Amino acid sequence: MGSIKIVSPVKKPDDIDVFAKETSCRDYYVYYKKFLNNNFEYVKEFVEAAKRNKCAIYINFKHDITEENLPEIKKMLRFLKTAGIDGIFINSFAILEAIKVFNLPFKVIVDSYFDIHNLAGIDFINNFHKVDEIIITEEIYMKNIAKIKQYTKLPLAIDSDNLPYCAEDIKKLKAIDSVVIKGKFNNSEEILEAIELIQKILDKPKLFKHQKLPFKHVRKSIYSTNHFLGVVVSAEGQDFKFSKNIRNFEWKVVKTKVKQVFDYSKKDIYKINLRLSELAHLKELEKYIKKIGTNPVYSIEYGEILATCDLATSSFSDIIMKVKKFCTKHGIKFQLSTPRILIERDFDRVYEYVKQILLTNPAPDSLIINNIGYFWTAINDPEINHIPIEIGQGINLLNSLSIKCLNNLSPIDTVDFTSFSDIESTIKTIKKIKNDIPNKKYTIAGNIRVPSLGLCPLNNDSAIISRLSCKAPCHRGGYALHDPSLDKIYPFTCDGFCRMHMFEDKILEEFDKVEELYRAGVNEFVFDLSALNAKFIPILLDKFFSSFTNK
Fold it and tell me: Which CATH superfamily is domain 265-448+506-549 in?
């Protein structure tokens, strides 16, 4: 397996001397944060170590670039032009936008935080800068990577997380050029051991197929399902089996005691957006509208997660048609939301389904995009590029430069700021782009999403093989995963692709933040009911309006 390149992190320049002597690894990276606070000259020590060992050194710009970091990041990129590095890893749209105006003399490697699942995503990246390699996101299976490889000459890489389970396929399909070691390492000795283990796995994949990597994961996903082993892979704590750790779960919330008439005129100031997933939600909302004698909802998001119980009896198109009719009847804006994960196998099919809906009257008021390949395809499609575009929380935008990166390609109508780290970061960024983006969303109630990936764990421990025989337990009741090492419960739901979506076990109620966010520029307040029973619609709406009434 000598043709597969191993790319390893290093903590200090001396690591390169040791690793190059002890292993065959010749490609290394170091995280950008080591050079913040104008510590740029330290880069040269890594460059010198790489040169004397005839190795390559890269700077990894992680996704977590804040608004405060942006000025120094731009200075760092200017410095790196002449520093002698071999390339950079990019995980942020901010870096992509920054390098657009630089004539960079080194390689650009697109890291897995970009969530590249399909050829359209690759095409998007290539529009900005010549890309030298792409680390394909971990949600994708090897056969789909092989399919991408057929249509691109770009070298493809994967993170090390799932290497033991797919090393045989790597050898067979010859679609992967590099394996990038990602992990939390306490010291250089642990990194050296990781390199040696990865070498062994690539050399003898059958022998190490069930090998557990001895280092903790570094990923945005706190949990992922591994159906090869029937386990949930935890970024913190120990991995655990599906079969012993699935629980029945019922959401609970304290109801508001209604003692007075609410002032529903607030709905015209603080526009309410409902993120829904099942048709039962609409029935409950209908009852609530009749009860209070007015419609309190400004907009409805629908489509990202579709309840499997609805898909068992109705087609995607029929479900969306019912939602459209409901919104038209009550004067509610309909926002059609699309999936975050769209692997190459599914991309064209899903795109055409959605396109038909966009071209059928009454058309959705906007299209919510959660996948960068989908974004690129949509803005270049003359038949639908008149539809207002929203950037959903599935696309990682953590600063103003990232937002400008997309807005410069096509005017963005709305940005969902829910994925930002906190309200303070949201407010700082909104100040920078306030006049560029007309609408800003923020989730103030309902589900709190937990970064997760993988297929539903409900079927059985070999569900990846037996999905066709699944008895669809997701149609009935609520479920949660129990992490025994943390003794915590994480409710989850499944979508029409049998993908898992995880949440915190508490219901968000940040009504006290509404006025602050509104003053900052937020003009749509999201109630995320993706995994909640329909009964929570009147409960949360009552609590929202009572928060103003009781002041």
Answer: Aldolase class I (3.20.20.70)
